[in-house]
Amino acid sequence: MEKREVCGTKEAPFFSWPWENLGKFKYLLYAPLVAKVGCGYYKGEAKDGDWCFHVLNLLCLRAFVHQLWSSYSCMYFLNRTRRIDQRGIEYSQIDSEWHWDNFFILQTAIASFVMLSFPSLANIPIWDFRGFLCCFILHIVISEPLYYWLHRLLHTSDLFHKYHWLHHSSKVLHPFTAEHLTFLEHLLLCVVIGIPLLGTAAIGFGSRRLMYGYLLIFDFLRCLGYSNVEVFPSQMFNTLPFLRHLIRTPTYHSLHHSEMDSNFCLFMPFFDELWKTQNRKSWELQRAISSRKTSRVPDFVFLAHVVDVVSSVHASFVYRSFNSLPFSVKPYLLTLWPGSYVTMLLMWAKSKTFLFSFYHLHGKLCQTWVVPRYGFQYFLPFAKEGINKQIEDAILRADKLGVKVISLAALNKNEALNGGGVLFTNKHPNLKVRVCHGNTLTAAVILNDIPKEVDEVFLTGATSKLGRVIALYLARRKVKVMMLTLSTERFTKIQKEAPPEFQMYLVQVTKYQAAKHCKTWILGKWATPQEQYSAPSGTHFHQFVVPPVLPFRRDCTYGNLAAIRLPDDVEGLGSCEYMLGRGIVHACHAGGLVHSLEGWNHHEVGAIDVDQIDVVWEAALRHGLRPVA
């Protein structure tokens, strides 16, 4: 669904929030209420602080409603066929909506002012049925038409370019987009919300359950309309046609954002019908999307796995903003650990590979699927068969769907597990999907990071898949490679793979001290501080060991794991791949992507072909992929 590009000014009065410059410290504005509630409970005078408690409690519940809808909206594995706008949410939109919760501070301040101005409101009953009826009438008779006309007014040329453009600058709808408004617009929204609540209280029918119920339902319906997922079946409106006048569906509101000249209502389309602004496509599009059974088949799939329990929360359906940044351990993550652990057990017991994220590049749909297994499980002997079954099922599913390339990530291509994917291509020789481990590009990134003038390197993990190909490639460049290995048999086997005239450049060493004069180290296995101190001052440590070694030497430099920056024209990318920065993916991910972009028809499994390193590298550069310095 295409949307217009919108822009405007930020200089209008009441555009910015008063606490905008406070950043994260804005949450300190809640401190007086928190202190009053805490002090009341400490002194046993909780009753005096009741209204403060309810204001804060409502704040938490409303934030929870928004978070639940955000999580559901980002669960692509549940809703991909019913997504209205098929584009992904990009970093720029996430950053723009970062402070979506500003309105909570505003409404908390207004609620506090009202409670202090009218102390009798603290004594309203818990329940009064008359209040619900009264509030419902006030909402329909005043709030709905008031919002409608305010909304239309904000779409006039002058006000739109001063204020409302910010809301429409979000390209893809998300529950947080609902609150992405200017300070003035949220002040107006407070009036819309306040009339039914304060009006009912003024009549004498107010109650605490009404306060909770109205605000939570209001937020629920707002988030629903911005969820970008059509949740209503079209049969419901065919069976009960009158509901078309009462329910604003997500599709209905999406048309307002895509065309901006219709569907202005708050929750009830009746008012668009009344004032002739209902989009004619509203219900036809709703029927088409709600009845959709399939979605676009991806061209490329990156098959990843969960790293560990703590990092499992680094997902857009947990915290969208957290997922848009490189993963790092935060203190608050410890509070999520019990839930994450239970989730791990449930996924281990019964779960299948699921869609995690997606983006578009050069017209191709690229998805990341996740095998529901954690890093440590790959080293459990009894789990090997089950993990391979998960990977095999994912490959067969991709083959059935018509995916062109599926790339195996990290431990999914472990040699001891499945021979780097050979197990699957041998078992299923007629696969149409190309299976790829992507390590050819990983090797290319490492090798091209080594300066051309280097004539000697020290290599650990020398007989691994990557170690082997790095040694053979450097030998062809007439670079002396000191291969650290205790196995003469494995060393000799690799040495014999090199052309006779280059075999002399491969040298077996058995101790780190052998490289005490070599300033270029390539680490393919973990190196302790003592082992690192065997290197001379000024050494640069290249590495392909996971996790990367800790940088103990201040007089040396350390390279990052092989990674590739995606081209600037990548679309819909809003999540970070584990600890990598924005727009950066692991080299093996990019290796599979290059396989897809080039349209190669061979599998890339098992041992890495030395002759393909330069071919893959040049192809990656040709498609705009760049190594991360």
Largest sheet: 6 strands, parallel
Average pLDDT, to the nearest integer? Answer: 95
Spatial order of strands in the largest sheet: 8-7-6-9-10-11
Task: Kindly estimate the percentage of residues that lie in beta strands according to DSSP.
Answer: 5-15%
Q: What coarse outline follows from CA principal-axis ratios?
A: elongated
Protein described:
The chain contains 24 helices and 14 strands. Helix 22 (529-532) links the parallel strand 9 and strand 10. The chain has a six-stranded parallel sheet with strand order 8-7-6-9-10-11, with helices on one face. It has a five-stranded mixed sheet with strand order 2-3-1-4-5. The radius of gyration is 30 Å and the shape is elongated. The two termini are 37 Å apart. Helices cover 43% and strands 10% of the residues. Helix 19 packs across helix 20. The mean pLDDT is 95. With 629 residues, it is of the alpha/beta class. It has helices at 31-43, 50-73, 76-79, 91-96, 102-117, 129-154, 157-168, 183-203, 208-225, 234-239, 250-259, 270-274, 282-290, 320-323, 337-349, 384-401, 415-418, 422-427, 439-448, 465-476, 488-497, 529-532, 587-598, 613-622, and strands at residues 300-306, 354-361, 364-374, 405-408, 434-436, 456-459, 480-484, 506-509, 520-523, 540-543, 557-558, 563-565, 584-586, 626-627.
Short précis:
The protein has 24 helices and 14 strands. The chain is an alpha/beta fold and 629 residues long.
Question: Notable features of this structure?
Answer:
single chain; 629 residues; alpha/beta; 6-stranded parallel sheet; 5-stranded mixed sheet
